[in-house]
Amino acid sequence: MDALQGVILGILQGVTEWLPVSSEGQSILAMIYWLRISPDDALSYSIFLHLGTMSAVLIRFRCEFLKMLKEIDSKLTRIVIVSTFCTGITGIPLYLLFRESFTGGREATLLIGALLMATGLLLRFKGSGSRMAEDMSLGDMIALGLAQGFSILPGVSRSGTTLTVLLMKGFKQDEALAVSFIISVPAVLGAIVLDHSIAAISWTTAAAMLTASFVVGYLTMDLLISFAKMINFSGFCLALGLITLLLAFGL
Questions:
Q1: Dist CA 203 CA 81 (whole Å)
Q2: Residue from 88, 108, 82 nearest 27 by CA
Q3: pLDDT, tens digit, 9 for 90 and up, residues 185-199
Q4: pLDDT at 251
Q5: CA-to-CA distance for 77 and 108, rounded, in angstroms?
Q6: What is the phi-psi region of residue 36: left when phi exceeds 0, alpha when psi lies from -120 to 50, beta otherwise?
Q7: Residues sharing a CB contact under 8 Å with residue 100, sequence separation 6 or more, in sequence order
Q8: Which string of DSSP letters, residue by residue, matches the chain?
Q9: HSE, side-chain direction, 13 A CA sphere, residue 182
Q10: Are 116 and 240 in contact, with CB atoms under 8 Å apart?
Q11: 51: how many CB neighbours lie within 10 A of its CB?
């Protein structure tokens, strides 16, 4: 992979991260079929790409993170700690289990297609309400973290999954969005630490990937979040998952 290809992948990550279509799944498919990268390496690169959009989240919600550092006993801090711990409970075993299944393009594509369709079905169950982050119970935090852990699987949308859980529990959409993005930061850092197999990539390409994903992610965040609110992505994910499955059977 060269620097230009890294930039294109960064742009893809920067756009799809804010939409409930699994940016990880889209990046892996692009790397397998465009760059002919092995599924195992593609998974590592897709996780690494999240570092750029995670940096965009840190800047976008810098006030909330600074407040958490000053008030370590705040409700938001407890939400982040509990949800991150529970994310590890589901995320780490799933990562270790399903990484072994990434042995070939067909297997990876079938998995992504199936999980995209599962995401589409999940997105049909959104609710609405007036609850605020301060109203979140311990049970809510646990459910949120356990759900986020499933997003380690390519094809499962992290934002779509966490938002659905929060909206079904009656939280306001703006509150749910903020919490969803804030808890993504430790989850991304944990995934990058867990997956340490990107040493083969050059510093030039790595810098290009992260710069593009950060810049595009930061510039498009608000626009694409607003767009995602207006569009029903359930049918889109189901169709995308079906196309991906057909692609796998056509190999």
A1: 32
A2: 108
A3: 999 999 988 887 665
A4: 54
A5: 36
A6: left
A7: none
A8: --HHHHHHHHHHHHHHTTTTS-HHHHHHHHHHHTS---HHHHHHHHHHHHHHHHHHHHHHTHHHHHHHHH-TTSHHHHHHHHHHHHHHHHHHHHHHHHHTT-SSHHHHHHHHHHHHHHHHHHGGG-----B-GGG--HHHHHHHHHHHHGGGSTTS-HHHHHHHHHHHTTB-HHHHHHHHHHHHHHHHHHHHHH----TTS-HHHHHHHHHHHHHHHHHHHHHHHHHHHHS-HHHHHHHHHHHHHHHHHT-
A9: 26
A10: yes
A11: 18
Amino acid at 221: M
CA atoms within 13 A on the CB side of 40: 10
Q: Which amino acid is at 10?
A: G
- 248 backbone φψ class: left, alpha, beta (φ>0; ψ -120 to 50): alpha
Helix axes 62-70, 39-60, angle to 10 degrees: 80
Please tell me the pTM assigned to this model: 0.88
**pLDDT tens digit sequence for 99-139:** 776 667 777 888 888 989 988 888 887 776 788 999 999 99
The Cα–Cα gap between 145 and 111 comes to: 22
171 DSSP β-pair partners: 131
Q: How many residues does the chain have?
A: 251
* Predicted local distance difference test score (pLDDT) of residue 13: 96
